[in-house]
Amino acid sequence: MFIETCIAPVNIALIKYWGKRDEELILPINDSISMTLSTDEMCAKTTAAACSTFKEHRMWLNGEEIPFEENSRIMRCLKALQCLALAKGAPTKFPLEWKLHLTSRNNFPTAAGLASSAAGYACLVYTLACLYGVADEELTAIARLGSGSACRSLHGGFVRWHMGHLADGSDSLALPIASASHWPNMNVLILVVSDSRKKTSSTKGMQRTVETSDLIHYRAKHCVPSRIKTISEAIRQRDFEAFAKITMQDSNQFHATALDTYPPCVYMNDISHSIAAFVHAYNAAIGSTRVAYTFDAGPNACLYVLQEHVSSLLPAIQISFPNDSADNVEYYKGIASDQLTQSAAEATDISLNGNTSLPIHEHNLLKYIIHTKIGAGPKRLTGKEEHLINTTTGHPY
Amino acid sequence: MFIETCIAPVNIALIKYWGKRDEELILPINDSISMTLSTDEMCAKTTAAACSTFKEHRMWLNGEEIPFEENSRIMRCLKALQCLALAKGAPTKFPLEWKLHLTSRNNFPTAAGLASSAAGYACLVYTLACLYGVADEELTAIARLGSGSACRSLHGGFVRWHMGHLADGSDSLALPIASASHWPNMNVLILVVSDSRKKTSSTKGMQRTVETSDLIHYRAKHCVPSRIKTISEAIRQRDFEAFAKITMQDSNQFHATALDTYPPCVYMNDISHSIAAFVHAYNAAIGSTRVAYTFDAGPNACLYVLQEHVSSLLPAIQISFPNDSADNVEYYKGIASDQLTQSAAEATDISLNGNTSLPIHEHNLLKYIIHTKIGAGPKRLTGKEEHLINTTTGHPY
């Protein structure tokens, strides 16, 4: 049996991907830019095993077996990797005909509504690439076939997915802009909010937007290109204020085009909008842009803040969004959970002095907070204890 | 003492006005189209009195005295009417120097968040025009100086506010498209929803949108003109399906541009979006577009539905948005309050059969419902008992 285990990160778009020009090849209508999050707090982990005795392709996701050969996106990724292995002409360690067993897990709750497919497909493709022994140059285009934004999870730091212009999608690739070490103090707080509404899936939502919204095409052609330039320059210069403004504007514009869809796609809820309003009020109270929000196709907020400002932001969040389990480790996950109460005094100052006071909301609007930061790309894990598949039985542990 | 009393209707925009090209003259960046609502259910009522003994201009709004000479919008309307009277050369019944007492009341709760300024300024201008004895041809341009959308309340039925192109705004006028009798069975249900959030005022909101949104300018130049054509034709042909679709699309696009503003303007809340989703689900269940929604700069829904379909729509609303005081006359206001329970059986059929079932929400998300319909423009009331000002004292009753 040949076996490989890898982890891959989550990425959060700063300039949003919304709308495909080719549904089959998953080619976007505009470039997008993302930041990769540290795998310490959130990642997908995949083990891929190949064995001459496996009768069929099988896959387990978060402990549940799921259809493999019927899943066209997984099969597309697999076929593309096998083609790549053939094209490279490099001898693979085992015949390509051998069946595979795959196991994948996210170390963060999928119920959180956090985009797990990007990390999942990036991890799948990266792990299979290790198994087949193919270099990682073309991998982003293959991950893209699984889930568009997965291509951005194959790099660390700040990543640009170039939409490309060729019909076959071969130039629709994700390339790094700057590594995690370029802006190492970039931290992220994910505010997971309570929500019960049924959402339109991203795939269906963006398809409907492209078909029915007048604004999305103007956005893709005229707004995004200049935003890509502006935020790339802000990242290069580590200009947080410029970075923050364009990030918030682009999140809002993405949700605006979703709303311009017919029937409309609504992903933010009242709590999401309250968080956005909190960020504007907090920045106004501080007198500079210290925090930025972005929202994907769901209600949870992703807040960008430099590490040195986290300890004054957290108590302000607790003032504005009081939570009865704020002292609970289950509420505050990730980096440095002791910071929550550390500088409550400073935050109280912010809310009490100054002309802009923070809005105070009812209790428990936030389910929990994940504190994480900028991080690197996928990693191959070499320790035998890392495998999710039992090398004797070929089945998941 | 010379005294006049008039009423003026509310109008609800179908193609939205959002954004001025001239803040002072209140000149819009695009045409808009509205439907005027019957004054039987909702109207502003204004009495204007002129007397040689009045020492100063005074005004009372809903019983409270408000500053008059300090209110630049009211003064602009007054000055423009006096200029018109002078320009006409017609002898006025009294010297233009005489001071005025004005009283205005809305017969609908202002707390409802329903745009009352349009009806209010339309009524003010119409009443003053009666008092000064000037013809009503140029009145829409004068009402516009008070509140942009007020110009549309000077006509009944369907009204188009032409943005105009002249710098002095003299061609920015509201003109009728079709009278109320053209589509007499056009009914409206206003769903007033619970809300506590502080909203950005329309004036400030649209100013910020024009300054910060990229999408608003594309909307004004490229989307609105074709929508104006499409809905005008739908109105002409009494094509409810076409009318409904473009109305919903334009409401969504207006809120999209508000969200594309920085910081964003958010007027719809979760309940508003649930109502929009209900309308789409209801139409899907029926198999044709029977209901349309539109939302102004607030969370309340305005539903368009033909009179013959009201009795099956109302019970469906009650199923989807159950209200404990549904039998209360305070909950269901306006036309034919006995229809609410009339055909519950039919609505139940809709929700139970078919593949699309209606979403069922928690109780009491709606504060109340106003049932009204298409209506005529402002009216001069001649009965002495109509006056809101005591002709002996010169003060409001």
TrEMBL record, chains A, B:
Keywords for the protein's UniProt record, in alphabetical order: ATP-binding, Cholesterol biosynthesis, Cholesterol metabolism, Lipid biosynthesis, Lipid metabolism, Lyase, Nucleotide-binding, Steroid biosynthesis, Steroid metabolism, Sterol biosynthesis, Sterol metabolism
UniProt keyword Lipid biosynthesis present: yes
EC number(s) recorded for this UniProt protein: 4.1.1.33
Swiss-Prot/TrEMBL GO biological process terms: cholesterol biosynthetic process; isopentenyl diphosphate biosynthetic process, mevalonate pathway
SUPFAM superfamilies on file: GHMP Kinase, C-terminal domain, Ribosomal protein S5 domain 2-like
Occurrences of domain Diphosphomevalonate decarboxylase-like N-terminal (ranges): 8-174
Gene Ontology molecular function terms on file: ATP binding; diphosphomevalonate decarboxylase activity
One cellular-component annotation, GO: cytosol
Family per record: Belongs to the diphosphomevalonate decarboxylase family.
Stated role: Catalyzes the ATP dependent decarboxylation of (R)-5-diphosphomevalonate to form isopentenyl diphosphate (IPP). Functions in the mevalonate (MVA) pathway leading to isopentenyl diphosphate (IPP), a key precursor for the biosynthesis of isoprenoids and sterol synthesis.
UniProt-recorded name of the protein: Diphosphomevalonate decarboxylase
Annotated organism of origin: Glossina fuscipes
The organism's taxonomic lineage, starting at the top: Eukaryota, Metazoa, Ecdysozoa, Arthropoda, Hexapoda
Gene: LOC119631562
